[in-house]
Amino acid sequence: MKHNTINRENIQQMVNSFYPKILKDEIVAPFFIQKIGSDINSKEWQEHLKLLGDFWAMTSLGDLTYQGSPLAPHFNMPGISREAFRRWLELFHQTVDEVYTGSPAEFFKQRSSNIATNFMRNLGL
Predict the structure, then answer these.
(1) Which of 55, 74, 76 is nearest to 66 (CA)?
(2) How many Cβ atoms from other residues are within 10 Å of residue 56's Cβ?
(3) Superfamily of structural domain 8-123
(4) What is the pLDDT along the chain (125 residues), one digit of tens a residue?
């Protein structure tokens, strides 16, 4: 069932559905595997999934649980490229369309595109 509203539960559903796709992708998986590992059930991955749920809750709901700097880790990723960001967005938008419909889907697509553009600009890509 697709959601037409945004809440903490379906944000976490989106995040938890998205990252297994990332780990299977030949373009973006190496960046995540290098930093977090390949076992999505590991303590590190579970912490990362929660952190990202908090990030998207902050972005979409104004929830103040997220504590971090989303851009900072990307400065320490040798080889990161516009192609990797494009692929990340493609997979993210695909997942958004699986979880959401209507304005929530459009919100996450627009917001993720804006974030990716800002990250690439700040990283000099």
Answers:
(1) 55
(2) 21
(3) Globins (1.10.490.10)
(4) 899 999 999 999 999 999 999 999 999 999 999 999 999 999 999 999 999 999 999 999 999 999 889 998 888 888 999 999 999 999 999 999 999 999 999 999 999 999 999 999 999 99
Query: Domain coordinates of the chain in residue numbers?
Result: 8-123
pTM, two decimals, is 0.94
58-74 burial: b if 16+ Cβ within 10 Å, else e: bbbeeeeeeeeeeeeeb
- What are 23's two structure tokens? 């780990």
What is the spatial distance between Cα 107 and Cα 49, in angstroms, rounded to a whole number? 20
Token pair recorded at residue 40: 């999505």
